[in-house]
Structure formats: structure tokens, C-alpha cells
Amino acid sequence: MAIGTKELATTELDTFEDQRLVEELRKAKEELFNLRFQSATGQLESHGRIRAVKRDIARLYTVIRERELGIRATPAPVEKKAKKSKAKKADEAAVAEGEAE
């Protein structure tokens, strides 16, 4: 995900877990620091980028705060299903047949 773009919409942020939101916030703050440093040294090429990153930071703070207040729902943790090997499936089928008899 690119920080400071239209790809960082609130609908996309709704799918992020709290830990990922904090990580994205850290990345955005780091990018803003680097952009300000470039601006101070005269190396900044895109001044509009600072504004976009500031907006992303504000958007991230808003989503985090709304979740704290219960305004915005926190996504349910996704359970990862482990893939079963053919041997395990065959063993389970044999156990199931043994119980049925």
C-alpha cells in the first residue's frame, strides 16, 4: 500500500487490524519526517506529497480513535485454515469409518 495516495481509503482501513494500523501510522510519520528533511535541505521534488502524507496520518488517527470509542467496528480476526495432506485426510476417513461400524 502506498502512503499518500487515494488507495488509502477509509473503506480499506476498515479491513486492517489494529496492529497494522499502528504500523502504517509509524511508516507515514517516518515518511513525513523524511519529506520535511528533504524540504529543509532543498531536495524535495514534490511538495504536494507532504500534504498527502499529513492527510493519511490524520485518516489513520481517526480510524484508530473511532475504534477506541466503538464508533467503527474492529474487523474479526481471520482464522487461517491449515491445508491437510492426503495422508491426514485418509487417516481421518479411516477413523470415521471405524467409528461408524
Model description:
It is a single chain. The protein is an all-alpha fold and 101 residues long. The chain has a single domain, classed as Helix Hairpins (Orthogonal Bundle). The protein is 64% helix and 0% strand. It has four helices and no strands. α2 runs antiparallel to α3. The longest helix is centred in the first third of the chain and has 24 residues. The termini are far apart. The model has no long low-confidence stretch (mean pLDDT 82).
Largest pleated sheet: none
| Overall pLDDT level | 82
The CATH topology turns out to be Helix Hairpins
Low-confidence runs of at least 5 consecutive residues: none
Helix content: 55-70%
Distinctive features:
Helix Hairpins; elongated; mainly alpha; about 100 residues; 4 helices
Topology:
Layout: H1 10-13, H2 18-41, H3 48-69, H4 86-100
Helix pairs in contact: 2-3
